[in-house]
Amino acid sequence: MLAFLHQVLSGLATGGIYASVALALVMIYQATHQVNFAQGEMATFSTYMAWKMIDSGFPYWAAFLLTLVFAFVVGVTIERVIVRPFYKAPVLSVVAVFIGLLLIINSLSGAIFDYTIKPFPSPFPSDAWYGSPYLSSHEVGMIFVTLMVLALIFAFFRFTPLGLAMRAAAENPVSSRLVGVRVGWMLALGWGLAGMIGAVAGMMTAPIVYLDPYMMFSVLLYGFAGALLGGIDNPWGAVLGGFIVGVLQNLAGAYVVGTELMVTVALVIIVGILVIKPSGLFGRTIVTRV
Amino acid sequence: MRFRTSLLTAAALLALAGPAFAADAPGVTATEIKIGNTMPYSGPASAYGVIGKGETAFWKMVNEQGGVAGHKIDFISVDDGYNPAKTVEQARRLVEQDGVAFLFNPLGTPSNTAIEKYLNQKKIPQLFVATGADKWGNYKDFPWTIGWQPSYRTEAEIYARYILQEKPNAKIGVLYQNDDFGKDYLAGLKDGLGDKYAKMVIKEASYEVTDPTIDSQVVTLQGAGVDTLVTAATPKFAAQTIRKVYDIGWRPLHFMTNVSISVASVMEPAGVEKAVGLISASYGKDPTDPTWKDDPGMNQWRDFMKKYMPGADLADASYVYAYGVSLTMLQVLKQCNGDFSRENVMKQAANLKDFELPTVLPGIKLNTSPTNYHPIRQMQLEKWNGKTWVLFGKVLGGAGS
Fold first, then answer.
1. Between chain A's N and C termini, which has fewer beta carbons within 10 Å?
2. Which residues pair with B33 in a beta bridge?
3. Is A120 left (phi over 0), alpha (psi -120 to 50) or beta?
4. Contacts with A117 from chain B: Cβ below 8 Å
5. Is the Cβ of B251 closer than 8 Å to some Cβ of chain A?
6. Contacts of residue A199, Cβ cutoff 8 Å, sequence gap at least 6
7. Domain assignment present for A195
8. A177 within a domain of the structure (yes/no)
9. DSSP secondary structure letters along A34-72
10. Same fold, B2-150+294-370 and B152-282+381-397
11. What CATH number belongs to B2-150+294-370?
């Protein structure tokens, strides 16, 4: 029983990583109706910037905030310079651009910061009261941060005019432009915000898995599984989906299919959900009038 | 241009020495031997690139000292980025354009696997490959390919022997990477434990290189009641394992593959105090170990480094490796006695008798024969004390395959 509980809790911790990446995917999907495959690599690169700053003597939180600014600027720049020319291109071309970005940013991280793993500090003290042998204080802290980011995103899209404008720009660019929304900048803003959320995810993940250029490579896959499971247009659903994937994977690995097939579980989830409920457990089914 | 020059050289040779000489010893002229090599100078394994640099410096030293039997060594080391597809391309280039006599110390298990068929078909020696996989001792199917360092399987067998001796009632758990590397450890434990394997190994847990963490596996092993853990993981996962085992308050007797014992890339990220008591095995002298501060063998290496690699990091064990494996190659060339045909080079590589190196632990001797393609089969156990690895016990041997 104790072992079972331990598996669930460690699944929640890993699920927290997936959830934070899923949030970044939701953000960019909400803002642009695109799925950015380079999201994970952008997060890794931002985390390297944070590492570099902390390594050269910046206090943690200063580095944290500067990294968010950096990630925002990078996100906006990538949208304006690289993605914008493909605005009217077919979906496949856009996907090719994203995969190209993934490879380029990954190699850049490796070339600049090399491939050996680097320890990344946690902002949460390791002997804090909320830590335990089952869930370290950083893991508890990371789950808390993820939930906080979730609340911020939810409030942003629900209660602010800017959030509404962004949703509108993604949903129906033509009508939005007619009512005065600057669609181009909304898209760039979406990229910037998604970059920031990704950077938070990176800085929360690195203390657990160590920082290396491949840090987010596989995490992104599980983040996708989580986002699709919960519904990629619903931040709550995506976070819940991330946690479910983490726990399900642990339990399946420990008690059902064995460790060799753990990866497969995530893929089966993606395919299964797409077949049965394409909009995810908590996603909105979009009805289009023809 | 290069192609034309080699044609000219070949023509000149034909005229001078007759067809037999040129046909029997490709890559060898009256004054030169061409040796090829692939290395990951770029890409994810680029940290190992220093091995190629060390070897280049070594052959420069040999040439300055007059070469081997009147022949200078032309060492051509090229980058494969640790990408097997690229290794194939580079190996073909080395063989077909540069016309090397043989390949020496190409690095990486997947990279060497990608070229072993090609080289064996063409009967080109693939000597002393830089990988610890056990498959390089397969003299039956691949008679032109030979390993060098102790295989993972030999290492695991040594751990099994130690466990049988010190903790005969151990409940063993294995955490392994689900590929050739990890599975060599299972095979080695089976060699060492024999029919006790089924009883003593109570849990095997694998992970994939794509898994973000190994937390679930560690929890599973602990839950199964394991008190002796053997971990066959690459540095990132090894560091995660050491930390997780400590953090959940578990204190098993912990064996760590010698792939993941680097202080900088495993012990420090994991937390040096969390790794205290960890056991591993070594065959080479650690350049940072104070035991070898005034060791004549290591001083020989240090003199070489000072003169031919000034400014290089003397704490990097890869340079010690490069020096040792190059000395082995040099010994083979000396044993060739002037006949550098591919057949004779291969024959001499499989004919090392109690050869001793200044950079391996005292008591370890290199031996090969037509039915033994594992030159080094001995290691010594070592324990992490929080600051450094401390050798203990005697040099132990494993049979390997």
1. C
2. B28, B73
3. beta
4. 235-236, 239, 265, 269
5. no
6. A42, A43, A46, A47, A50, A67, A68, A70, A71
7. yes
8. yes
9. ---TTHHHHHHHHHHHHHHHHHTT--HHHHHHHHHHHHH
10. yes
11. 3.40.50.2300
Q: Any CB–CB contact under 8 A between B207 and chain A?
A: yes
Q: Which domain holds residue A185?
A: 24-216
Note the CATH architecture for domain B152-282+381-397. Answer: 3-Layer(aba) Sandwich (3.40)
Closest-approach residue (CA) in chain B for A11: B216
* A263 close to B (CB below 8 A): yes
Radius of gyration of chain A from its Cα atoms, rounded to whole angstroms? 19
Token duo for residue A227:
């986002």
Return the residue of B nearest to A205 by Cα.
B212
Q: Which own/partner pairs from B149-152 qualify as long-range (CB within 8 Å, at least 24 positions apart)?
A: B149/B283, B149/B321, B149/B376, B150/B283, B150/B374, B150/B376, B150/B377, B150/B378, B150/B379, B150/B398, B150/B400, B151/B184, B151/B188, B151/B374, B151/B400, B151/B401, B152/B181, B152/B184, B152/B185, B152/B188, B152/B232, B152/B257, B152/B259
Q: Angle A161-171/A137-159 helices, nearest 10 degrees?
A: 80
- Residue A184 included in any domain: yes
The closest CB to that of A133, out of B44, B217, B249, belongs to B249
Write out the DSSP string of B218-281: HHHHHHTT--EEEEE--HHHHHHHHHHHHHTT---EEEE-GGG--IIIIIHHH-GGGGTT-EEE
Each residue's pLDDT, cut to its tens digit, for chain B (401 residues) gives: 444 555 555 544 444 443 334 446 899 999 999 999 999 998 888 889 999 999 999 999 999 999 999 999 999 999 999 999 999 999 999 999 999 999 999 999 999 999 999 999 999 999 999 999 999 999 999 999 999 999 999 999 999 999 999 999 999 999 999 988 999 999 999 999 999 999 999 999 999 888 889 999 999 999 999 999 999 999 999 999 999 999 999 999 999 999 999 888 899 999 999 999 999 999 999 998 899 999 999 999 999 999 999 988 898 899 999 999 999 999 999 999 999 999 999 999 999 999 999 999 999 999 999 999 999 999 999 999 999 999 999 998 876 44
Q: Cβ A260–B178 below 8 Å, yes or no? A: yes
CB A102 within 8 A of CB A38: yes
Mutate to test the interface with A, among B79, B175, B216 (most CBs of A within 10 A): B216
Pairing between strand B378-384 and B389-397? Answer: antiparallel
- Per CB-CB distance under 8 Å, the chain A contacts of B223 are 2-3, 6-7, 254
What is the ipTM score, two decimals? 0.89
B-chain residues near A114 (CB < 8 A): 46-47
User: Hey, what are B215's tokens?
Assistant: 């937390």
Whole-angstrom distance between the N-terminal and C-terminal Cα of chain B? 46
Whether A194 is covered by a domain: the verdict is yes
pTM: 0.86
Residues B236 and A212 sit within 8 Å (Cβ to Cβ) = yes
Residue in B with minimal Cα distance to A259: B206
Q: What size, in residues, is chain B?
A: 401
Closest C-alpha to B68, from B248, B331, B295:
B331
Number of domains in chain A: 1
